[in-house]
Each structure stands twice: as C-alpha cells, then as structure tokens.
Amino acid sequence: MGVIINCFINVLVPQLYQWSHTRFDCDYDIPNELQYFKQTCAHHVTNPEDSILYENNQLNMSELLSHQEFCKNVSNLIHYLSQSVQKRTTINPKACKMCEFKCDHAKVAILFSGGIDSALLALLASKYVESDEPIDLLNVSFERPANSNNFECPDRQTCLNTLEELKTLCPTRRWNLIKIDIPNVELQQKRFDTIRHLIYPLKTVLDDSLGCSLWFASRGLGKCNGKSYKTPARVLLSGMGADELLGGYTRYRKILQRHGWQSLNEELDKDFSKIPSRNLGRDNRVCCDHGRQLRTPYLDENVVEFIRGLAPWQRCWPKEPYPINLGEKLLLRLAAFKLGLVNAACLPKRALQFGSRIANKKENGSDISDRL
C-alpha cells in the first residue's frame, strides 16, 4: 500500500504598501494609520469675497494678526504644532547614541535649511528640549561645480541668518550648527554603494536628489564651530508636509489664477494624498540607515485635522496683492512672525535639492535618473 504524504506549502503573499510602487494613481489598500492621507476636505470651496485679503491692498503681518479672522487660526496652529513638537522631542530615550545612561548630549536634531518650516520647528523644540542639552541643526551642501572645493549654497547663508534670529529669541539655548559639506566624489560613491538601494523602487531625478540630500544630512557628519562633529541625536525633526498642507509650492499660484479656489483645494488634497508614496517610505529608510528616527511634526493627526479643516484661502493666498513667497504658506508665516521669527517669516520657498545645490535645474525632476 502506498503511503500518500500531503505536503502543505505556505504561499507568501507580499503586502503592497503605498510607498513600494512608483505609480501614484493606484487605489492601494493601505494600512489604517495612513487612511487619513486619502481623505479629502469636506467643505465646498467658493470665492472668499468676505476675506480681508480680498481687498486690493497689501496688509503687513502685524495688521493681519490684528484681525480676528487670522488671529484665532494662527493661535490654533501654534497650539497644535507646539503639542506635536512636544510629543516628538520629549518622548525619546534619555541617552544619546553614544551613551548608555542619561547624558547632556544632543538627543534631538533638526533638518535645518533655515527656511520657515525648519525655523519654526527649531524655535518650538527649544521650549521642550531640556535646557542643559544642545539642539543640533543639520545643514547640507554639495560641491558645485564638481572638484571645485566650493560648498557655498543658498541654504547655507539662509541657515546662518536664521540661526542668529534663534539665538536672539533663545539666548540660553546651545545651538550646534553642523555644516555638512559633501564632495562630488563622495556623493557618487555613496549613491552607488548605499543610497540607490534605499531609494528603490523610486528612481526619478527628484528621488535621487532628495534621497541623497537627506542621507548625508541625517548622517550628521560635518563641522561644528570649525571642528569635526557627528550628531549623537537619535531623533530627527523634519518639516515634511508643510508645503502640501499650507500651500507652499509656487505652482499653486498658477492653478488659482487659471481655475479658481475649488481647483486649488483639490490640488492641495491631491498633493497631500501623495505624501506616503512620494516621501514617507523613502525618507524613513534613508534616515533609519543611520540609526535615527525621522519625526514629522507637521503630519501629526491633530495638526493635519485642524489645517485641512480650513478653507484654502485661510491657509495661503497665492495671488495679488501678495507676491510670490509671501502669499504661499501665509498662515505659517503669520505664526512664525507672531512667535518672533520676523525675518524667517519672509524667506522665500526653496526646495532642498536646489538650496543644497545637488540638483541640476536643467533636469526634469520626474524623469528617470541615470545615476541610480
């Protein structure tokens, strides 16, 4: 009599997460914790003729803050964002990466371009990080042109100016500005050996530029006060999500001009829904490669719920009478201005890949990169 042996083979069915594919228009079955990225704003958008910004005269920030329409929204934004930063700076180990027990080294670092997003995070973080600990500010710059030993870039000057403003507002805080200068030879080597594998399966020019910038920045190896320094921080704060939530991209101005507020509202929803596939997975893998945790205060559930409950003209005003880079993210600029970041509140929007000079403006960010 033959013996029949039943073999049971467990078939592994891969689970497709939203960030593991390059097509952004697919209807993925994403985990519950990411569902709120898929939700759209419920309110119907009409022309804001009752807004004080509808008047054809430019009001300065002090005057805008004196109006009830903005004062309440600015106060609420500061409240929710402060709570978000507090959670992300106080709930972490008391020892840095170098120490086994509680120490007074930096536990929190900030990806710091000096722009409005990172400047506001730095100011709020200083309220909650223990007073005897420094906060590390990570600023990355790439050699341009190649082999020139020139690391001057727009973000470097911006971060120096904003640092002076932070020192004035928080005179007792130790700020460690880490200048991370990356030679072209090192960029090519690390991109080929490590970074391209972390970015995969994303492979556009934009993914290449942002992935490399973030990998070197989160490594945290550079110079602080002229001496070699590597941040011991376990936590990295990032301004991810601020542009999508608060209307920071300059292209929103054209959308509003051509199609009106309803179309702008739909575009804000669309861009926000792309954050998991376009940013979160890639950026998290890149930062975790250095044993650091990326935390994103602007994507806190309470912050997101509050901001997306506002009409688009309550978040930004990308049209006359406000010029480019002032009307964009107007609500966030008013919050920074109210907290004392007077100069940073007026800084122009500058993408990381251009501010650090890793990107070539002649390339299209959506094209496939031949360097990965």
Concise synopsis of the structure shown:
This protein has 372 residues and is an alpha/beta fold. The chain contains 14 helices and 7 strands.
Task: Explain what the structure shows.
The chain is 41% helix and 9% strand. The chain is an alpha/beta fold and 372 residues long. It has a single domain (48-356), classed as HUPs (Rossmann fold). The strands form 2 sheets. A 5-stranded parallel sheet has the order 3-2-1-6-7. The chain has a two-stranded antiparallel ribbon with strand order 4-5. It is globular, with a radius of gyration of 22 Å. The N and C termini lie far apart (60 Å).
- Gap between N and C termini, in Å? 60 Å
Please state the overall shape, judged from the principal axes of the Cα atoms: globular
The ordered H/E elements are HHEHEHEHHEEEHHHHEHHHH
Question: Average pLDDT across residues?
Answer: 86
Rg calc: 22 Å
Give unreliable regions as ranges. Answer: 1-9, 15-34
Largest sheet: 5 strands, parallel
Q: Order of strands across the biggest sheet?
A: 3-2-1-6-7
Helix/strand class: alpha/beta
- As for the CATH topology, it is Rossmann fold
Tell me the total number of β-strands.
7
List the domain count as a whole number. Answer: 1
Strand content: 5-15%
List the helices and strands and how they pair.
Blueprint: H1 61-65, H2 68-90, E1 108-111, H3 116-128, E2 135-142, H4 154-169, E3 175-182, H5 184-199, H6 205-219, E4 221-224, E5 227-230, E6 235-237, H7 242-246, H8 251-259, H9 261-273, H10 275-288, E7 293-295, H11 301-308, H12 312-315, H13 330-338, H14 352-355
